Automatic annotation (TrEMBL), chain A:
InterPro entries: FANCG, TPR-like_helical_dom_sf, TPR_rpt
SUPFAM superfamilies documented for this protein: TPR-like
Bilayer-crossing regions: none
Protein name, entry field: FA complementation group G
Organism superkingdom: Eukaryota
Alphabetical GO biological process terms: interstrand cross-link repair
GO cellular component entries: Fanconi anaemia nuclear complex
Organism: Lates calcarifer (Barramundi)
TrEMBL record, chain B:
Gene Ontology terms describing biological process: interstrand cross-link repair
Region listing for Disordered, in residue ranges: 661-681
Pfam families in the cross-refs: FANCAA
Gene, per the UniProt record: faap100
Origin superkingdom: Eukaryota
Protein name: Fanconi anemia core complex-associated protein 100 isoform X1
Length: 627, 834
């Protein structure tokens, strides 16, 4: 008889011991396995999970007893933590609910509400001051985590009161805690894999972050902001606090307060230096404000931060089994946090530098970029939205930058690369459809054999143009003429076809949309003809020069160099009035608009060729004036 | 011996039904790695020609790849990818016991060697320092990239990223899975742009740029056309991935923002992706990519020269279909080798390249292409399921390494003059067929033939059956036409019967045992049914005659010539006087039995259609129904004794019966009862010429001397009665319980079907003044029905016999018989003279 009397307690002790051993093993693993990635962590986690579930089945094999409840709910907590950590949310939730219902059978009342909100309210009420009050609270924590991880924000909102009181009781009750801890030392108290106090803190901040992000994406910036500001005082890991600051900044940016937004972003960066999204967003604000220097600075910082090995994966320190990354899975948050790839940032940086007078720096960045593209460590893994331009364009941009930096030989090498790649594939003749149909035609071309034939032809043309510029720079006029001619020969292969008309060689009087193939074609034509014309002037072939320059102006009237040199040739030919008119016209164009804006950098007019001094020309006009 | 392959079997492993397709790979110097799809990887030394080591993994091995630079072997298993270093392997192989020459070293690979814990890895590829793992996740293909560490010791494999491609047409794979239980491994190869020794390519990777079976260097133009300018500019290797769902996907490895894109779909599981030089370009540069599908679809991808007017070069896809399933395949410089499982075939690709020369004649070229694809040259090597080329190929002749379905590792040396043999026609290759190849070919043919054979056999069976049926039909129809002339005995298929009294549940009943006798040369096969209709003769003309007829059917299975079928049917119960009865027999054949059940199910009209062929008609008359009493018994007491002898236990019944008869006798008039009964008896007599009888009966009992004892009048009388009672001139005879009584006397007492006693007496009488001797058969009974019935029966018998006799001997005898009716209460019977 006495044996039978003692057996339950013996069993209880055995189970407690088993649970505690498992928890200790689990914690050791956690401590030692920091270096392991999340994926590799799954395997031991899975085994622990199954162990806890096995133990739970044993415990639940006997009818519910009051003195077993504490142990049972603790094991449920442990098993659920493991399941949740493996993203098995529905299983965990089911287990949790069933365990609570089983526990409540002992108190007599059984809440059977299908509604989760009502269920938990009744549970909390009926548990009241019973012995397993705390255990149920811990399980509510887990339920909260599951809701958060599955983005069920409405339930969280509905149970706001209960959850906040839960937070207060768990984090506020210091004395209770002490007692708990003291008792935890003895071996008969079941241990928990994760400290619920730490968990509830984490949940609180994560909930604030996700709610903030959701509100922000719904456009309720001011509400989001106030909630976030209260959250910023919560105890939390640095990375999460940085998120709070970052989101506050985003709210402010939405509310058109860029300076305050910048302040918040700065705070985020101070809190966590790896918060790249704050850096990226501040860069965007600088760009918006037109502060180029600051923008370049931000880009540089962003790029160097992204190049750090650990940053690419958001390094939210996994101190718990339930990591913040598991809890922060909202779509709107991740879209807010998204940052372009390092290479894309590097490209923006290089382009900005080149466009804003920091040519040598820009060239260095371009070369870095090309080196990165060719390195063996480069793998096309990142595929975010603001992708890099096509590689030939990148080469041409880099080439143009090199030329600007007076490195014509390097530029020519890059252009050779492009030419050698594309030359064999160029079509003998190609018809460019009406602009309205371009996109359609392009997609059709792409689908045929993966490449846009017209685009390829224009790249090759641009490469020849750049080579021509290089030779011009080197004052090798003959070579320059040859390369410009190659470019022109390529360009005349393109026929333009308007709807209902025959294909024709393009002319300058057509209305051309920016950024289209046609626009680039015309620009190329203008530049190459101008380049050849200028080269002819240097070899005193004035007639040819005049013809080319006039054609150039026809193709692309806004070409300043062509205009000025055309005047010069006319002047030399003795047609001084015409020359003066030509100069005047050109100057009026340059003051009117900057047509070069929006064009790729390699289609800008060369700065390195033979130049005409405008003041000297004006003198000439003045001298001519009386006539 | 031109055109014959030299096949040399190196070793044999026993394996069967593995979860993954097997693979052979050269590596570790002159060794070969074999993964058969089971848990083991075998290391075979080609120099020593023996198995050096067996690596035992914790799960089925799906793929393996080796890293030359770092001397590593990566093996993918169900639980992940394992990495084993060659020095470790070699040290273990060498440190194994001294008698290592005999047995290979066995190495158990534990989870310590696990480097990437990715589950379900199907294919591996190593591109410089990147390990690519293709695995299948729920509904998508996952290509994961891992960076291998610089130091061998380090075990950190950093995941660089992964690409996902949603799965389509999952059934394509499951189809093959279902058939063979083997999972087809996706093909993973790497294509490099340009020359392997290209100056701009990084020097570190030069060693792996050599062409192996999963790395190719593709001619730049084709590379650009297939994979785009950007990949070419970045000099990025491109991963080609042939999936079991038929798609051929590509991924530029080093291009930012690149994605897995579909290049082409073969619409059947991709078995092989390779590259061939095809044309006379520099060494190592492939000008043609080849993809082969499981059902024989071959796609060649090469550059098409652009038309002079308009566009430049284009990527050309030539599609064709080679006959037969493709189990495994391999490409060398000019040829595509593939195994169908029953034969190894070779297709000349350089021939195919010339097909495209004339672009204008598109129709013709495509026809030629199809023709070339349809006529691969057989190499007569069977059962190859995995192929690999030896790493060193110094001699110039083509060597292949094959693994057969039985687990034999074979070296296949192709004949030097094979090219000529391939371009010329087949006969030369057929000369030197090895016995093995012939056997395998025979095996193939056998299998196909056996299917046809069974079909033909069943058709023949049906035809033969039908033939039998028709033969029997004709036979019986011929019988019917000449029924009158043919005596019954001469019919080849006929029925005869026997009546038999039986007693069941204290009720006497008359059973008819019908015997179908097949003396025809034909078998009565399944489908025949013996149908017997019984109806009383007297009602046959009346209106309600149909209602009293009974039909019995007896389907039977097989009745060979000379065999008989005996069926039994109840004729009437005691007390029923509807005799004589006519028993008409016929054979019925149901057409539905000719075809199988499933065929007839579609033809409901056939189920009821049948052929009905009348056999013959039997008559059961009163004579057949008589139960003859033992001649020694007294006619009066016979009734009781017969009953008591039948049912000896039922003495009470006997007592009651006797008591009742006594009472009845007493009631009817005491002692006069018996004489009165005697007086009320009806009688009828039939007179038959004794000369005729003597002839007939003596003729029948031929073995006796015609002047023997039978010829005496006394004998004649008894034999007449014997004949009447026991012979079966018309095919029906009376069965007898127990022994047949020897009729010694000329008086027979019997009991009719109604239970009345009947007395038959035969005696010799003189008729008329000419002293013509005749035998008179007198029938006496108290029941007039019995007398009438028996009189009719006797007359019928004699008439029948006399008619037969007329046929046998020409009628000319002065024979006659006379019938005499005599009844106490009736008019004197008329006597008829015939």
């Amino acid at each position: 008889m006495s044996d039978k009397m003692y057996q339950p307690t013996n069993l209880l002790n055995k189970w407690v011991q088993e649970n505690n051993e498992l928890v200790n093993k689990c914690k050791q693993q956690e401590g030692g396995g920091d270096t392991l990635s999340r994926d590799q962590n799954q395997t031991p986690l899975r085994s622990y999970s199954s162990e806890f579930h096995k133990l739970l089945r044993k415990i639940q094999g006997v009818p519910p007893l009051v003195n077993h409840t504490h142990l049972e709910l603790s094991v449920v907590y442990n098993a659920c933590v493991c399941s949740t950590a493996q993203s098995q949310f529905t299983e965990a939730e089911l287990l949790l609910i069933q365990a609570i219902q089983r526990a409540l059978q002992m108190t007599g009342d059984e809440p059977v509400a299908s509604n989760r909100t009502v269920f938990w309210r009744t549970v909390l009420k009926s548990v009241g001051n019973t012995t397993f009050n705390t255990c149920v609270r811990y399980l509510l924590c887990l339920q909260w985590a599951i809701w958060l991880a599955t983005c069920q924000l409405t339930i969280i909102q509905e149970l706001k009161e209960e959850l906040s009181s839960l937070f207060e009781t768990l984090c506020g009750g210091v004395g209770d805690d002490k007692k708990n801890e003291a008792r935890g030392k003895s071996s008969d108290i079941p241990l928990l894999v994760t400290d619920p106090r730490g968990l509830v803190e984490l949940l609180q901040i994560c909930t604030s972050i996700i709610q903030g992000a959701e509100r922000l994406s719904e456009g309720q910036s001011s509400e989001a902001l106030s909630a976030l500001q209260t959250a910023s005082s919560l105890p939390a890991p640095r990375a999460l606090l940085a998120y709070v600051h970052f989101l506050s900044g985003s709210c402010l940016a939405h509310m058109s307060r860029p300076q305050m937004a910048l302040q918040c972003y700065r705070k985020a960066l101070v809190t966590d230096a790896c918060c790249v999204s704050a850096l990226y967003q501040s860069m965007l604000i600088y760009r918006q404000l037109g502060n180029t220097q600051a923008e370049i600075q931000a880009l540089r910082l962003l790029q160097s931060t992204l190049m750090l090995p650990s940053v690419t994966v958001p390094a939210l320190a996994t101190t718990h089994l339930l990591s913040p990354s598991l809890l922060l899975c909202s779509q709107s948050l991740s879209s807010l946090l998204s940052v372009p790839s390092a290479l894309s940032v590097l490209h923006s940086l290089a382009l900005k530098c080149v466009l804003h007078g920091r040519v040598s720096e820009g060239v260095e960045h371009y070369l870095d970029l090309l080196a990165a593209l060719h390195s063996e460590d480069q793998h096309g893994v990142h595929a975010e939205a603001p992708a890099l331009p096509r590689l030939p364009e990148l080469y041409l941009e880099a080439g143009a930058a090199l030329l600007m930096a007076r490195r014509p030989a390097d530029c020519m090498a890059l252009c050779n690369e492009v030419i050698s790649t594309t030359l064999e594939l160029l079509p003998e003749k190609v018809v460019l459809e009406d602009p309205e149909e371009t996109s359609e035609a392009e997609t059709r071309d792409m689908s045929v054999d993966g490449e846009d034939r017209v685009g390829m032809l224009l790249w090759t043309g641009a490469a020849y143009l750049l080579q021509g510029h290089c030779h011009t720079h080197l004052k090798d006029w003959k070579q320059a003429v040859t390369h410009y001619t190659r470019c022109i020969n390529l360009l005349v292969r393109v026929r333009f076809k308007k709807k209902g008309f025959q294909p024709q060689i393009t002319s300058g009087d057509m209305v051309v949309k920016q950024g289209t193939h046609l626009c680039i074609l015309q620009r190329l034509k203008g530049l190459s003809l101008a380049g050849r014309g200028i080269s002819f002037t240097q070899t005193d072939q004035l007639k040819e020069a005049l013809r080319d320059l006039l054609l150039s102006l026809q193709a692309s009237p806004e070409c300043v160099g062509a205009g000025l040199w055309c005047g010069e040739v006319l002047w030399r030919l003795g047609r001084r009035q015409e020359a003066a008119a030509c100069w005047e016209k050109t100057w009026s164009f340059t003051t009117q608009h900057h047509s070069a804006e929006g064009l790729p950098v390699y289609l800008q007019e060369p700065q390195s060729g033979p130049l005409l001094d405008s003041t000297e020309l004006r003198h000439r006009i003045q001298e001519l004036g009386p006539n | 011996m031109e055109g014959r392959c030299a096949v040399e079997t190196w070793t044999e492993f026993g394996f069967s039904g593995t979860p993954y397709t097997p693979k052979i790979k050269f590596g570790l110097g002159t060794n070969v790695f074999l993964c058969t799809g089971s848990d083991e990887v075998f290391v075979f030394s080609t120099q020593e020609r023996k198995l050096r080591a067996v690596l035992q993994f914790p799960g089925p091995v799906s793929d393996l790849v080796e890293c030359h630079d770092k001397q590593l072997l990566y093996v993918s298993c169900r639980s992940g990818v394992y990495c084993i270093s060659f020095p470790f392997l070699l040290s273990r192989v060498q440190s194994s016991p001294a008698d290592a020459s005999s047995s290979p070293a066995e190495l158990k690979i534990s989870s310590d060697f696990l480097v990437v814990g990715e589950e379900g890895a199907l294919s591996l590829l190593l591109v410089s320092s990147v390990l690519l793992i293709l695995s299948q996740r729920d509904t998508s293909w996952l290509l994961s990239l891992y960076k291998t560490p610089e130091q061998t010791q380090s075990s950190s494999y950093e995941m660089l990223g992964s690409f996902r491609l949603p799965q389509v047409l999952a059934d394509l794979n499951s189809d093959t899975e279902g058939q063979t239980g083997t999972r087809r491994r996706p093909v993973l190869v790497c294509v490099h742009p340009g020359h392997p020794k290209s100056p701009s390519s990084s020097s570190t990777s030069s060693s792996e740029m050599t062409i192996t079976d999963s790395h190719f260097c593709l001619e730049p133009v084709l590379f650009k056309l297939l994979f785009g300018i950007d990949a070419a500019l970045a000099r990025s290797p491109v991963i080609l991935c042939g999936l079991p769902d038929g798609r051929l996907c590509f991924l530029p490895l080093r291009l930012p923002g690149s994605q897995l894109r579909v290049l082409r779909s073969l619409e059947q599981p991709v078995v092989f992706v390779g590259a061939s030089v095809v044309m006379e370009t520099g060494p190592g540069l492939a000008r043609c990519l080849v993809a082969v599908g499981e059902q024989g679809r071959v796609v060649l991808m090469k550059t098409d020269k652009g038309e002079p007017e308009g566009g430049g070069d284009m990527a050309g896809f030539i599609e064709g279909c080679v006959p037969g399933p493709v189990v495994c395949s391999f490409v060398d410089e000019h040829h595509l080798y593939y195994s169908t499982g029953s034969d190894l075939l070779v297709l000349d690709l350089s021939e195919g390249s010339s097909w495209r020369e004339g672009k204008e004649r598109d129709g013709e070229t495509s026809r030629k292409t199809a023709a070339a694809f349809q006529s691969p040259t057989s190499l007569n090597v069977c059962r190859v399921i995995a192929l690999a080329a030896p790493a060193l190929n110094t001699t110039g002749d083509v060597q292949l390494l094959g693994l057969t379905i039985r687990g034999q590792l074979q070296r296949i040396i192709l004949p030097a003059g094979r090219e000529d043999a391939g371009s010329s026609n087949l006969p030369s290759t057929q000369v030197g067929r090895s016995v093995r190849d012939l056997l395998s070919a025979i095996g193939d043919v056998c299998e196909r033939a056996s299917v046809l054979k069974t079909a033909i056999k069943s058709k023949n069976q049906i035809l033969r059956h039908l033939n039998h049926v028709l033969n029997i039909s004709f036979l019986l129809l011929a019988n019917k036409n000449s029924e009158e002339h043919l005596p019954m005995q001469e019919k080849q298929i006929r029925c005869y019967a026997e009546t038999r009294w039986s007693r069941l549940l204290q009720k006497d009943s008359l059973n008819l045992t019908c015997v179908l006798d097949n003396s025809s040369p034909y078998v009565l096969e399944q489908g025949w049914t013996l149908s017997i209709t019984v109806f009383p003769l007297s009602y046959s003309s009346s209106a309600e005659g149909e209602s009293s007829s009974t039909n019995f059917s007896f389907p039977f299975h097989n009745l060979n010539p000379g065999e008989t079928l005996e069926v039994s049917l109840p004729l009437s119960a005691a007390g029923d006087t509807s005799f004589p009865m006519r028993v008409s027999c016929s054979l019925i054949f149901s057409l539905s039995s000719l075809l199988g059940e499933e065929e007839t199910a579609h033809l409901p009209s056939l189920q009821s259609s049948c052929i009905s062929l009348p056999l013959n008609t039997l008559t059961v008359d009163w004579l057949h129904t008589l139960q003859v009493n033992s001649p020694t018994m007294h006619p009066i007491s016979r009734n009781a004794t017969s009953q008591s002898s039948n049912i000896t236990t039922d003495t009470v019944q006997a007592f009651l019966n006797s008591h009742r008869s006594r009472c009845a006798g007493r009631g009817e008039g005491g002692g006069e009862g018996a004489s009165k009964a005697e007086r009320e008896q009806c009688s009828a007599s039939v007179r038959v010429s004794s000369e005729l009888l003597r002839d007939t009966l003596v003729l029948k009992s031929s073995d006796l001397d015609p002047r023997g004892p039978k010829s005496t009048p006394q004998n004649l009388c008894s034999s007449l009665l014997d004949w009447l009672l026991y012979e079966s001139p018309e095919g029906v005879k009376m069965g007898h319980q127990g022994d047949r009584f020897v009729l010694s006397s000329s008086v027979v007492h019997a009991r009719g079907p109604t239970g009345d006693t009947v007395k038959l007496t035969a005696k010799e009488v003189n008729v008329g003044e000419e002293s013509l001797r005749a035998i008179e058969v007198q029938i006496e009974s108290s029941s007039i029905a019995a007398v009438c019935g028996l009189h009719h029966a006797v007359l019928r018998r004699i008439q029948y016999q006399w008619r037969r006799r007329q046929q046998e001997v020409y009628f000319g005898l002065s024979s006659w018989c006379c019938f005499l009716w005599q009844c106490n209460n009736l008019q004197p019977p008329t006597s008829t003279c015939v």
